[in-house]
Specification:
The complex is a heterodimer of chains A (481) and B (249). Chain A has 481 residues and is α/β, with parallel strands linked by helices. Chain A has helices spanning 26-34, 37-59, 64-80, 82-95, 106-119, 131-136, 138-144, 154-161, 178-188, 200-217, 243-249, 270-281, 314-318, 334-338, 340-345, 356-367, 384-388, 395-409, 415-427, 430-443, 458-461, 474-480; strands at residues 99-103, 124-127, 148-151, 220-223, 227-229, 234-239, 253-259, 263-264, 289-294, 304-310. In chain A, strands 1-10-7-4-2-3 form a six-stranded parallel sheet, sandwiched between helices. A four-stranded mixed sheet of chain A has the order 8-5-6-9. A four-stranded parallel sheet of chain B has the order 2-1-3-4, with helices on both faces. The chains are: A alpha/beta (481), B alpha/beta (249). At the A-B interface, helix 1, helix 15, helix 17, helix 18 and helix 19 of A face helix 1, helix 2, helix 3, helix 4 and helix 9 of B.
């Protein structure tokens, strides 16, 4: 499943295709979103609302912690025997009348899907919201081949019509409010009523009218998958709007692209995840639409089913003992909703389709840490994400691990690495440490109330005072008492 | 009880009043405090910034210095968190099995101040007096790494004269995050702005916490805006009495 490299190590996701890399560092991208009051208000409102809703339905589950532990254990077991489970899944899907394709990376996956759409004779596909297809830039690849991809999830449609990028895993248009959505629909939606208001039900009705016609007239659908059951070959998609059910049942051909880590061993395992996912994700006890299908059923639903299994750097993640826990992720986005950094900086600052805390650990691993070197630092390590994660991914632990990798990946010493080495040397020599304490007091580098520290420490004094150094250190006080 | 003080480099250098308060408090409660002078820094900054190899000698030093003591206390949830959750990992990464097990052993004997008071010494009313309106910021590492829970507010509620006001959205990080405050200064400031807004909404005169680093951050913002709200370490409040009020209280 992996492209072998000359060292025999699994390959990372290739550059130049898909959406795992940003154009600028996290601090630079965050600067723009922090200055956008509308974005700040939308994010604060949306994350606060989802947080409260999710906390409510989690509090009423007496076995939530046991469910989390079970979810983590099932995923850990899956990752430990991934090749065997994928081969079992492949055999079962084929047995049920499906076709299975293996894609080492985004380039291969885009080619496979494009060829399948062409072979079906279609110039348009309908899509169920899918992180994997965004990750590989499928819509752009299809567009280049003359195929129009229509997103049918409401928020994803808003993003697509607005020629925008998603900023949240679950709520991709979280950065937009009703007034902005109305403007986008009026500008971009074919056949829209010019008298459209910003009332949520009117906006939903407009999207429904537009999409209903598209559902009925498009012969090919592309979906992702939330889960794939190895023992039965069953695929599962959970969604809230019914658009997914339409895509999965109406077209003649269904193409499902999934990351290899989405497989679970048994049907029984779904019981755990179908409890965890909606409560952690949308704050619902049960998600509205759970669609499951196994291969092809003659005379019912799509008569051709293709499953594309995507690696795109996952083999490299799996090879990292600490980092591999990121592959347990079920894309619930609970970590985004509780993250104080995400709440202020927004999803676009992460530069990848995977924003927030999980993106900060997943994107740099998929691409290699060189290409997303600022992301492991886009966290205060406050730990709210770890507490919220329904599959117990220790995100702070992985962030710290990746920071060390980012430092090790640098070929030359930096001002920071020299300062760190000097600080460690000083701290390991108490006499030097005491001298440094005296020097900091005497030199008063901080100046009056700490204003005007030299770079990079001026990042502190731009908005915060430093207290005056005390007249004596603790150890001086102790020695003199 | 004989208690070794792990002062933390930040309190030693910048906030000695938090450390002297810890000493005065524990001595007032009838305990012996010792200060091993060869201690310096736990290495948390190195570990969390991506320099675990630089942290190895600091972990080794910390373990050597504190190994002889049965009970160790620090006035910092964050530094205790580093000792408890990171030192063994750093030692293991360096391939030093003996250091790993000794680090685990020292970690098991190391307590944050409120843990020591409530769990080890079994006291919730320390006989303090602090006649001010106070709001308490739980600090992320105390809250989520150490799970100190309601130990600090329980101690605060027993302080005579103290009016404890709950801080809205208290579980949200203040935006410090060590080098995060410098590397991502603008996002950090945005988080701080919301924390200050919540502190000011309580009408408190004093914002307290059990970590000097978070107080350095919150206090730096409150001071820059001339809000008139002071930050005071939990140890200073608990050490404060009618006869010996907190130095800055």
């Amino acid at each position: 499943m992996n492209r072998p490299t000359f060292l025999g190590m699994p390959a990372t996701a290739p550059p130049g295709v898909g959406h795992l890399r940003g154009d600028e560092s996290f601090p630079a991208a965050a600067r723009r979103s922090l200055a956008d009051p509308q974005l700040r208000r939308n994010l604060r409102h949306a994350t606060t609302t989802i947080r409260a809703k999710s906390a409510g339905v989690i509090a009423e589950s007496p076995d939530w912690e046991q469910l989390r532990a079970a979810g983590a254990a099932i995923k850990a077991d899956t990752l430990n025997r991934l090749p065997e489970l994928l081969e079992q899944l492949e055999a079962k899907v084929i047995e049920a009348g499906g076709v299975v394709h293996w894609a080492a990376d985004a380039v291969q996956a885009n080619q496979i899907v494009t060829d399948l759409v062409r072979a079906a004779g279609a110039d348009r596909v309908i899509k169920v919201k899918s992180m994997a297809t965004q990750e590989i830039g499928l819509n752009e690849a299809l567009h280049a081949a003359g195929v129009t991809a229509v997103e049918t999830d409401l928020a994803e449609l808003i993003v697509q019509l607005g020629d925008d990028r998603p900023s949240h895993i679950l709520v991709p248009a979280i950065h937009r409010n009703r007034a902005e959505i109305r403007e986008i629909f009026l500008r971009e939606m074919p056949g829209v009523d010019p008298a459209l208001t910003a009332d949520p039900s009117a906006l939903a009705a407009a999207a429904r009218r537009y999409l209903r016609e598209t559902f009925l007239s498009t012969p090919v659908a592309v979906s992702g998958a939330n889960f794939a059951v190895a023992e039965t070959g069953t695929l599962a998609v959970v969604e809230s709007e019914g658009n997914g059910r339409m895509c999965l049942t109406l077209p003649r051909t269904l193409i499902t692209l999934m990351g290899v880590e989405k497989v679970v061993p048994t049907w029984r395992d779904l019981e755990v995840f179908l409890q965890l996912l909606p409560r952690a994700s949308t704050g619902e006890r049960m998600n509205p639409y759970t669609s499951m299908w196994t291969g092809v059923t003659p005379g019912d639903g799509p008569q051709a089913f293709h499953l594309v299994l995507l690696d795109n750097g996952r083999g490299a993640v799996l090879a990292d003992e600490v980092g591999r826990q990121a592959l347990r992720c079920i894309r619930c986005s609970a970590c985004l909703n509780v993250c104080p950094v995400y709440e202020r900086a927004g999803g676009h600052a992460y530069g990848s389709v995977y924003p927030g805390p999980i993106g900060a650990v997943l994107s740099p691993q998929l691409t290699g840490v060189d290409d997303n070197a600022s992301l492991p630092y886009a966290s205060t390590l406050c730990g709210a994400c770890y507490d919220a994660c329904p599959v117990q991914i220790n995100i702070p632990e992985v962030l710290v691990h990746l920071r060390a990798e980012a430092v090790d990946a640098r070929r030359r010493p930096t001002a920071e690495s020299i300062a760190m080495a000097a600080a460690a040397y000083t701290m390991d020599h108490p006499r030097l440490y005491e001298a440094a304490q005296r020097a900091s007091r005497l030199s008063r580098v901080a100046g009056r109330r700490g204003r005007g520290l030299p770079p990079p420490l001026n990042g502190w004094t731009a908005s915060r005072d430093l207290p005056d150094p005390p007249t004596e250190t603790f150890r001086e006080w102790w020695a003199a008492r | 009880m004989r208690i070794a003080l792990f002062v933390t480099c930040l309190a030693d250098t910048m906030f000695p009043q938090a450390a002297t308060a810890t000493v005065r408090l524990l001595e007032r409660l009838g305990h012996e405090v010792v200060f091993p002078p060869d201690q310096t820094c736990c290495g948390q900054m190195h570990i969390n910034t991506g320099y675990p190899s630089d942290a190895v000698p600091l972990v080794r030093r910390h373990v050597r210095v504190f190994d002889p003591y049965d009970v160790i206390v620090a006035p910092s949830g964050s530094c205790v968190g580093a000792v408890r959750h990171q030192h063994a990992t750093v030692a293991r990464r360096a391939g030093d099995a003996s250091l790993t097990s000794r680090a685990e052993s020292v970690a098991a004997r190391t307590y944050e101040l409120s843990e020591l008071l409530v769990d080890v010494l079994g006291v919730t009313d320390v006989g303090a007096y602090f006649p001010h309106r106070v709001t308490y910021h739980p600090t992320c590492h105390s809250l989520r790494m150490l799970r100190v829970g309601d130990r600090p507010p329980t101690l605060l509620r027993a302080v005579r004269g103290l009016d404890l006001v709950e801080l809205p959205a208290q579980e949200q990080c203040c935006g410090f995050g060590g080098t995060f405050a410098v590397k991502n200064a603008e996002t950090s400031t945005a988080m701080l702005a919301d924390k200050m807004r919540h502190v000011l909404s309580t009408g408190a005169d004093v914002c307290t916490a059990s970590d000097a680093s978070c107080l350095l951050h919150i206090g730096g913002g409150l001071s820059r805006l001339r809000t008139g709200v002071r930050t005071v370490h939990l140890a200073e409040i608990l050490a404060s009495t009618e006869h010996e009020p907190a130095v800055r209280g």
